Amino acid sequence: MTSIKNHISSLSIPSALIENLQKITIDENYAFYFIFYSESNLLALPTITIAGRGDVFKELTNQDWVTQSIDLYNVIINLFEIDALIEYQLNSQKMYSYLNCQLDQLVFQAEEDYGGYLGLHFMKKTGKAYLKKTRKWLENRSKNHLNKLDEYIVRIEDRDSNYVTIVNALKQLLKEVLIDFTTIFFPPFLMQIPSEEEVLNFILKHSKSVSKCNWSQIDTVREYRLQKSNPPIQHLLYIFNFDKQEENNKYEITLLIDIMRVFISLFSTTLLYQYTEEYKKRTKQLKIHNIREEAKASVESWEETLENQVKATLKTFYTPKSVFLLSKRHFNIPLTELNYERGIHLFIVVLTQKRTYQDIRQFCKAITKQTSGQVKVTAILQKASDWTRNIPMFFEFYKKYFTNQNLFYGNSIYISHDKDEDIITDNKNKFIQECLESLNQAYLNIKENNNAIFCEAQAMLYHFVIQQSLVLLIYRKLEFIPSIIDVNYLYDLIQWCYPSVYKNINDLPVVKKILFNKDCFVKYYPKPNDFIADCTLEDIKELNSFCDMIYSLTKEEVKDSSLLIEL
Question: Among 110-124, 327-341, 367-381, which stretch is predicted with the lowest mean pLDDT?
Fold first, then answer.
């Protein structure tokens, strides 16, 4: 069978396993259609997924290099039968999204693909198969751990045994047990690695078997009359904090071994049954993580993939020179409902005088469709002569502080330069309505979330509310009162929030009652970029009253019944 795609030889796995994979793909008696390879999954082990059919394919389930792949090669191998799947309609390339782990590479694809139809059943089977694999792996690990404990018990009976060595060995063994646990429930690429005590307390809290265990039935526990409150946690932590200078006897060490024996047995045999909800949550996090990583990988090959698709779509709307990309960063806002988990978000500036609000909407939708949902577009439509030099300055702050958790609250902005008064009025109202919607959503979010974890994101949303409010006040051409605020401060603020809306301070329309008193403005705004990066909850509280003031003023001055929006 000839393969369209065969990159097996490039895999980062032992050569013996590569040879076995290559052998089955060239053997005429075998029928394999896909072999996938991934370096990312919950167990942090490489994963190979083989999809095929027939009796010979089934024989793989009896071959050691498949069934013992973790022990032999430290690699997970999954097998799936094509025959049970072809009745469903799912293009083979879409399998990437539905497997139990990220598929970095399709390393083998046969020419015979049943027309590209694979089943949704594939998606359903992978989850169960992966859980089964994980559970079996843990059980095997548990047996190995318990065997080691037996060795230590034998060594304790030996008069010449070095107890310090044994306890240090127990410490290493316990670390291995907790590593097994954390790779599943605390994947390092999803969250910060917890301490040993945090993991032990987590297990005690969530595991009924561990928490309800009758520890007093253990002879050594009963003999030492341990306190009822978490005796296993206390003594397991003792292992971690073991001091080599302490005097220890075999009874104390036997106690530690007995506690570890019960702990390991209960932990490994009941783990995935009792932690179902927690496991589902981690699995979902992993899936989102993998989608984001795939999107980031797409950015790395930008010239070959997404940029060409974007340019192709742009040609149906604008000339290529009228558009440039400000950012191709991954997009996620934890404080809003705009979590875009499917890919990346582009901020695009369209420099033209010929297109309308409807055009920009159509363009954004076309980009999303053209890239199969991988790309979400936020476009700013503006007159080229005014914005060519200054728009990059506007986004410099957001580009500098882009992270996976805290990003700019984006929306599409349109300012018309059409000469038709009716069109100008219509587009102006639509622009204001969109600004009000974004402003209101951001304001609600910062009022509903007070969490130190998201201080930076909250500060950015506060600033978004303030700057969007100012833009709307300026846009409505309110009357300026010099006694309220120093002109230089106002100019700095407008330049920071919305650079080059006006070229000169003398061109600024008047802003009425902007802060009610000069001292308030000078104290709280404008803030330097470093302030937002290091923002604390106390800073958020200070921003809060300032934000309320400007937000209330905007509601009062900008509210228009014709917009059909209630702030």
Answer: 327-341
pLDDT one-digit tens code per residue, 397-430: 334 433 333 233 333 333 333 445 565 456 556 6
Q: Got the DSSP string for 466-500?
A: HHHHHHHHHHTTPPP-TTTS-HHHHHHHHHHHSTT
Distances in Å between the Cα of 383 and the Cα atoms of 323, 390, 495 are: 12, 12, 17
Distance in angstroms (rounded) separating the CA atoms of residues 237 and 297:
41
Output DSSP code: residue 187: -
The residue ranking higher by pLDDT, 235 or 167, is 167
Average pLDDT of the chain to the nearest whole number: 56
Residue with tokens 């979330």: 449
pLDDT band at 21 (very low <50, low <70, confident <90, very high): confident
466, two tokens: 């303030």
Q: Which segments of 399-477 are extended strands (E)?
A: 413-414
Distance of alpha carbon 486 from the chain centroid? 44
- CA–CA dist 74, 82 (Å, integer): 26
Q: Output DSSP code: residue 159.
A: T
Angstrom distance (rounded) from CA 359 to CA 356: 5
Res 18: pLDDT: 85
Find all residues with CB under 8 Å of 413, minimum gap 6, and list them. Answer: 380, 381, 382, 431, 434, 435
DSSP lists the bridge partners of residue 51 as 34, 80
Question: Residue 79's beta-bridge partner residues?
Answer: 50
Identify which of 291, 445, 461, 446 has the alpha carbon closest to the alpha carbon of residue 376: 291
Q: Where are the alpha helices (DSSP H) in 329-382?
A: 357-370
* Beta carbons within 8 Å of 74's beta carbon, 6+ residues apart: 45, 46
Residue 414: the pLDDT is 32
* Candidate from 228-232, 486-490, 506-510 with smallest mean pLDDT: 506-510
What share of the chain has pLDDT > 70, as a percent? Answer: 16
CA atoms within a 13 Å half-sphere pointing along the CA-CB vector of 3? 22
Task: Give Cα separations from 323 to 313, 348, 379, 381 (angstroms).
Answer: 12, 7, 10, 10
Give the model's pLDDT for residue 322.
34
Burial of 244 per CB tally in 10 Å (0-12, 13-18, 19+)? exposed
